């Protein structure tokens, strides 16, 4: 599995394949290094082999994570891509980000380039629908369409999972979005001489700008605890004032929401956190069109302040407002950001927020330290959280068993987890998650602009082998982008792929669509006539 699949040929897409001008082009499948995520590395190589067996000339290429992410999300220089993605609290919030036709630009979120003008109105309208059943019906329609067109498809549904040294760490509680969420993180208890929670990540963080990052998991873990949100959603998926910057909220009508700001709260530097900071944050990200929060700033028209109350006026009715709006935007201090004219490109090395953890130091390439913010209304139970940059997973597990590390913030499923889960001092906590390993196809590429080719590729995905041989049974085979963990929001009737023989099923889809397969390679429509 560790050998590169389809290594012959050029380093990227071309129109020649093996020299037959009738073949579909060679496709590039971008992979992370083996030491970054061994399981995913092996899974991508296995999928690459299957795509070649299907007849799609596929070249698996290995890139450092940062380079890979840029090539896919900003340069669109790829054909196939896979990593872990999640939907968060609300299953519909990221649908528009990932699939709306207007969001296909650089850094826009729809990196597959998928465009369906008929689906666009539903992608947006479901964010505005207050009637839950009507919204569920729209989300079911979206799932059926995406599962038919497959610009993106789940390979495996990923659980939330965290491994930890059980002699030092306890108290983990479940939350749909993960153990990094504020609620479980503030429930964690640590028992060591320094009262430190110590984790590790494979590569440097890159930035500490909450308004200028690409929604990467390693940074979400930091910003979740550095910044507060107007409203947070608890483990029961309900808005919870005990977790929130706002202590009360009300909806005078379907286009207006009012929030009463918590009194007496301060920024980490000691300045008062005021309703004007909230107003500034919302106006600032809208005026500067911050890409990461585009779904949110497109929703509202104006913001006003009356005492401790902030009123947000929305352009159109907003449905699950706390899940798609109030819980999404981190509130930033006006006195730190108002002088920055281009916040999406701002260099932030010492962030100031108001969350349960505050910035301590950042040794780029080595480690990040956050400390307990004593004045938070819901403080953590430990004194410090340190993340060390350690590329080698075997080293990470060795340090976890020794107690030099005591938790793995993003525990990767694979041989290391399987081999170490029964160690006496290793605990593993798992619960159904909101995300998956995705198989994404660049619809801008010749051939991949045809859903028949994309469907054939999805048929060829060796999901069962990946889950059993690479994931050690920790995951579930993926069928639907909105998985069963979302209950009634998940459409159980989506189109099913993965026939018993995925290669044969995929080739039949191709042949039915007018493609031919000669010498093991898919030929363009009509090329054999």
From TrEMBL:
InterPro entries: SBP_5, SBP_5_dom. Residues 244-521 form the Solute-binding protein family domain. Residues 1-26 are annotated as: Disordered. Pfam families: SBP_bac_5 (PF00496). Keywords: Signal. GO terms for biological process: peptide transport. It comes from the Archaea. Gene3D superfamilies: Dipeptide-binding Protein, Domain 3, Periplasmic binding protein-like II. CDD domains: PBP2_NikA_DppA_OppA_like (cd00995). GO terms for molecular function: peptide transmembrane transporter activity. PANTHER family: D,D-DIPEPTIDE-BINDING PERIPLASMIC PROTEIN DDPA-RELATED, PERIPLASMIC BINDING COMPONENT OF ABC TRANSPORTER. This is Solute-binding protein family 5 domain-containing protein. It comes from Haladaptatus pallidirubidus.
